[in-house]
Write a structure and sequence with these properties.
4 domains; six-stranded mixed sheet; Immunoglobulin-like; 2 helices; mainly beta
Length: about 425
């Protein structure tokens, strides 16, 4: 019976015993007999854990219903005579009686009231010992992808002996074992209480102590060993994961126990640095970063990043702006994404060029648009209709130079 049930068992049965039957203070657990000659008779078997071999048992008896005083006569089971024939103690004029320093065997108490037999109880004392337990690696050769644990255990005391009270035939009650694997610090152990030789395919990335605890009916034993990790874990983050071209992505490596690094950025470029420089994606599209690492002991792991999206090129041209200094719509600016190059010219209705810009790279990123002044001077262009010509090239090689990018805009003050 598993350890977790012992206390439930005691909570259910001990109140009944304390109300007036036979108890055994200090016993670790209690079971009941199964006599072939008397199937309906269930006497308690009190089991102690014997750590040193010098432990002894105790029995206490009270009469159901109380009252008294009574005479308590105690007897021990005689294996040769096959009966409770060995008198060991008599208590006269008491309401309860206790016998101590008991060896393994059967005991009977007869309770008399005014010399008349009143009640009898039988109990058996048995001693368990800590079970054998050994915890180690299944294979001394460590593997990169898993940890196989090897547990070995057996009951030191296989059975507990008692006797059929009618026939004197010896009977055996089997001991029972339960076990639990654990680790410090905590790591993955599949089915730690049902598989004595568990294998984890989520091996620890740090050194851990594996421990196997085994419980018999009343005793427990432990065995442990230190496991020095050899496992690798490829891990990194990318930021940002979305934006216009050219998109600069920072890569933070948090891998464990890597020695050789191979980075595949998904755009036909690679790196073997432990901590690569930020990577720039020029072409719109979707990419992933694949990291493969290898340890000094040739353990290998890999990880692919989440999807990185470089947005396609895009242009949107407004047709009205109001450079009046109110902070709203003061600039004629082309809304765009992922452009490699752009040029813009603005002409008055008479054909006079009032503004021009062309740029790429840093100048394109810093460009703020036309502020409504003539050719970047302090002279303000008069309100009215103007004509623009825009030419651009996206990082996805889309050209913006058709008639759709020539049109009229309205300047209001």
């Amino acid at each position: 019976m598993p350890v977790r049930y012992w206390f439930v068992f005691a909570a259910v049965f001990m109140p009944l015993l304390l109300n007036g039957q036979l108890t055994s203070p200090g016993a670790g657990t209690m079971r009941y007999t199964s006599y072939p000659s008397s199937p309906g008779v269930k006497d308690p078997v009190f089991i102690y854990c014997s750590q040193t071999g010098t432990e002894s048992g105790t029995l206490t008896s009270t009469r159901p219903g109380g009252g008294g005083p009574f005479t308590f006569k105690w007897f021990r089971w005689n294996e040769l005579k096959k009966s409770f024939s060995d008198s060991i103690k008599t208590d006269i004029g008491v309401t309860s009686s206790t016998i101590n320093n008991l060896a393994e065997g059967g005991y009977k108490v007869d309770i008399e009231s005014s010399g008349i037999p009143d009640t009898s109880f039988v109990g058996w004392i048995a001693f368990d010992k800590p079970p054998y337990v050994d915890a180690k690696l299944k294979n001394p050769m460590k593997h990169c992808n898993y940890v196989a644990l090897d547990g070995d255990t057996s009951a030191t005391v296989k059975t507990f002996r008692y006797y059929d009270k009618v026939t004197g035939i010896p009977l055996n009650m089997r001991n029972a074992l339960t076990f639990t694997w654990s680790s410090e610090p905590t790591s993955s152990i599949p089915h730690p209480s049902t598989e004595i030789d568990p294998i984890t395919f989520s091996p620890p990335l740090e050194d851990v102590t594996y421990k196997l605890k085994v419980n018999s009916l009343t005793c427990s034993s432990e065995s442990s060993f230190l496991y020095e990790s050899i496992h690798v874990n490829a891990d990194f983050t990318v930021d940002p994961i979305e934006g216009e071209a050219p998109l600069e992505v920072a890569i933070t490596n948090t891998s464990v126990r890597g020695y050789i690094y191979t980075w595949d950025f998904g755009d036909s470029t690679f790196s073997d640095l432990e901590n690569p420089d930020p990577h720039i994606y020029y072409k719109p599209g979707e990419y992933t970063v694949l990291l493969t690492i290898e340890s000094e002991r040739h353990c290998i792991d890999s990880l692919r990043s989440e999807k990185i999206t470089v947005e396609p090129s895009f242009i949107n041209i407004p047709n009205v702006f109001t450079p009046d200094g109110d902070g709203y719509n003061d600039l004629f600016m082309v809304e765009s994404k992922s452009l490699r190059y752009i040029s813009m010219e603005v002409f008055s209705q008479s054909g006079f060029k009032v503004y021009g810009f062309s740029g790429e790279g840093e100048s394109l990123r810093e460009w703020t648009g036309w502020d409504g002044n003539v050719n970047n001077s302090s002279r303000k262009a008069t309100p009215g209709v103007y004509f623009y010509i825009i030419r651009a090239l996206g990082w996805d090689d889309i050209r913006y130079d058709s008639k759709e990018y020539r049109g009229y805009l309205y300047l209001y003050r």
